[in-house]
Amino acid sequence: MADLLEVRDLKIGAHAYEEDGSRREIEIVKGISFDLEKGRVLGLIGESGAGKSTIGLAALAYGRGGVTITGGQVRLDGEDILALSPRGIGRVRGARVCYVAQSAAAAFNPAHKLGDQVIEGTLRHGIMSKSEARARAAELFGILGLPDPETFGNRYPHQVSGGQLQRAMTAMALCPRPDLIVFDEPTTALDVTTQIDVLAAIKRAIEETGTAALYITHDLAVVAQVADDIMVLRHGETVEYGPTRQIIEAPEEGYTRALVDVRTTSKPAATDQSGALLRLEGISASYGSGPQVLTDVSLHVPRGQTLAIVGESGSGKSTLARVITGLLPQSAGTVTFDGETLPPRLAQRSKDQLRQIQLIYQMADTAVNPRHTVAQIIGRPLRFYHGMRGKARRERVQELLDQIEMGQGFADRYPAELSGGQKQRVAIARALAAGPELILCDEPTSALDPLVAEGILSLLMRLQKETGVSYVFITHDIAIVRAIADSVAVMLNGRLQRFGPRDEALSPPFDDYTDLLLKSVPEMKEGWLEEALSSRRIASGGQ
Amino acid sequence: MSDASSGGQRRGLPPVATLILQRLGLSALLLIAVSLLIFVGIEALPGDFASTYLGQSATPQAIANITAELGLDRPIWTRYFEWLGGAVQGDFGTSWASGQDVSAQISRRLGNSLFLAAVAAVIAVPLAVGLGMLAVRYVDRLADRLINIVSLAAISLPEFFVGYLLILFFAVKFGVAPFPATVYDSMSLGERLGAIALPVATLVLVVIAHMMRMTRAAILSIMSSQYIETAELKGIGALRTIIHHAAPNAVAPIVNVVALNLAYLVVGVVVVEVVFVYPGMGQYMVDAVTVRDMPVVQACGLIFAAVYILLNMVADIVSILANPRLRHPR
Q1: Which of A274, A443, B171, B261 lies most in the core, judged by the most C-beta atoms within 10 Å?
Q2: Which pLDDT tens digit goes with each residue over B184-218?
Q3: What's the structural domain count of chain B?
């Protein structure tokens, strides 16, 4: 018998625009083949641009944006769905093959109730009657661990949390009893403590319904928990394809090995953490008349060291950075920098006080002006803070470019001509150009692929060694914390949960939240998910 | 997020009610401001009723007599509040020219104008929204281009020109439609509809393009949303996706343009009414302006302003109600 899904020599192209405006075809998937049996899960893994989402969508005969499938076959139960008429494809989508998007928050229509959206495809394809579909949805809500399965569907998307939306999206995909589900980074946008629950729910749902799945992610540790087989992709080509255990325990290709042990940067934590370049005492803050988002936070960063602030979204870590920079004046407490108290408001701070603290953002894309060249972007703080002009400024820009390992030829480029990692490097050079003593890094690597992120981290560490700059590094990634932090602050609901030297903060005895956080970080081994969940159950059962 | 929204609604009215009450209050305030503007503006107009009315026989004594008779020698504020007080109760005073009750005269005229506007709206709004959706369905294809070109041509021609063109062809050459569009109290609904066919057609042609284009633009911008892709990947057909998934999220911009055009249908029909000799508010006001019959002009001005404000307020409220986040707080 033929396999459920047979992909043969799949080729997918996209339009790219040259500088002169002419259009050029580029091949983004270059002849991929794989098979998927009924009830099995194949993980597609690779960096952004590897073509993994594009391949996933090809299983629904869909090309996103200007993407077109140019060759090959996608056979579902022996039938090539690429050859179907639009009407025929409409009968496959949402019936036999379903899709779970990365951002369920954007993928659900804000104007309709969740329940109606979950059963819509099932009803439109005439697979079940309305009452059957409603019962099926409630059953799935239950399997996926959503609260009040019977009435959950009456809510609107904005009325539930991100993790719940992602489960509801999974329920929507499972509802018509499809043969195949494409999961496109379903947990990437979630907090690590939420991710583990959603991951477990997806895994259980796959097992109980016996559907086959393509699971797309950039996180090998995540896909190792759900996939039977893994295909590693790079630049639209297969790097390695094999059973999960072989891929993570005995990878054959160099690229796969690099993905498996991606953490190469590490440094021992500083031993003397007594002095303080930056000291926060009893900081509380809120936005306008809204609720308090920071409550009584006190911590310090010694000169030349790195403080990592960890916590999930909404824990107040970015707000803390806004208070330090003066973008959001605190409602109580003091910020002391190099022995002097900083005025709460940005406008009250002197130019030199502003120069001492610089920022690097998560999205380098939006943090650099797309209409300025790299030289203009980096040159701006040189002019603003140091009054440098002409040749002196050009030379200093080149020095900075050398420092961020970008060298000649980049000065006259525009951000659109740079990769994500290069843009982040330019943002780092811009921060350095001011000559700061402290750089606030707000998730500077979370939008980047693991290997690129690794490069940025090692660059930051080298710059610290060379210039003695201090970092406040905001992240949700415990692995980064372990690698680069001297001290660690764990935040939850605007309060400091834990603060101290790294090795102390990340060693037992833990408070409940830090324990949960550490246990939720996926590890690259089969069966981690089950272990983590059972240890959690034991912990909560023991209380 | 969750803390913020739950904190805001703990006490007092639900957010929707608060927003709607705000709109109502604002509209009332705006209407009062407009009434002041109308009154002061008309006061500042050059020329006066007495000299226009008397014409050749205008002696200083006669003018003074009429001025005193109409109470125009009293201070402006006294007259304003007297007028406003009356207007609130639906009494717009008596016409200086005819000596008749303005409210009674207006009510029939206003009825006629609203009838014309309503018939035009009932045809234009669904047609415009429907065509807009159709244009999205076949975006950048022949149907879309055709709809765009025709509607652009219609909006580019001045309404009196469109009106005369329609009269020339349908009333004069083919003789299938009546002209002038006179209506009487004794006419049945069918007869009335027949009589106003041409002015309605003119109005529809004038307002449809604006609404159609806004519908098209608003829905097109929604069509690039991820939830539209979700619908497509669920195998939902293109037309259902547009109507069921895109349109509900485009209500706010569309409703605002519809309201603007409906207001135009009531307020802007002056030219069309004059062209078709239709006994509505517009003609009445134009006649009153020529003889400086201020109570009539003021009343018409205030009613037009009220219609404008009312329709925009309704649009605001519909936009608020169309937002599920406001309708169903967490």
Answers
A1: B261
A2: 778 888 888 888 889 999 999 889 988 999 999 99
A3: 1
Topology agreement, domain A5-106+172-260 and domain A289-507: yes
CB of B1 less than 8 A from some CB of A: yes
Residue A542 buriedness (CB in 10 A; 0-12 / 13-18 / 19+):
exposed
**pLDDT over 70 (residue A1):** no
Chain A contact set for B230 (CB, 8 A) = 99, 101, 107-109
A101 with B248: Cβ contact below 8 A: no
CATH number of A5-106+172-260: 3.40.50.300
Kindly report the number of other CB atoms within 10 A of residue B312's CB atom. Answer: 18
Query: Between chains, do B248 and A111 touch, taking CB under 8 Å as contact?
Result: yes
Note whether B245 contacts A109, CB cutoff 8 Å.
yes
> Under a CB-based contact definition with an 8 Å cutoff, are residues A308 and A481 in contact?
yes
Q: Name the H helices within A275-419.
A: 317-325, 351-356, 364-367, 374-386, 390-403
Residue B227 maps to which CATH number? Answer: 1.10.3720.10
Query: Measured at the alpha carbon of residue A203, what is the angle toward residues A199 and A209, in degrees to the nearest 5?
Result: 145
Which H helix or E strand runs over A452?
helix A450-467
CATH entry, A289-507, from 1.10.150.20, 3.40.50.300, 3.90.76.10, 2.40.33.20: 3.40.50.300
Is the model's pLDDT at B132 over the cut of 50? yes
Residues of chain B found within 8 Å of residue A64, distances taken between Cβ atoms: 229
Q: Give the pLDDT mean for A389-416.
A: 88
Q: Tell me, what's the pLDDT at A540?
A: 56
B292: confidence class by pLDDT, cuts 50, 70, 90:
confident
Of B3, B231, B232, the CB nearest to A291: B3
Q: What are the helix (H) ranges across A8-103? A: 52-58, 86-92
pLDDT digits (tens, 9 = 90+) for B71-90: 777 888 888 888 888 888 88
Domain assignment of residue B257, given as a range? 13-46+90-327
Q: Does A314 touch chain B (CB under 8 A)?
A: yes
The ipTM is: 0.79
Residues of B in contact with A155 (CB under 8 A): 328
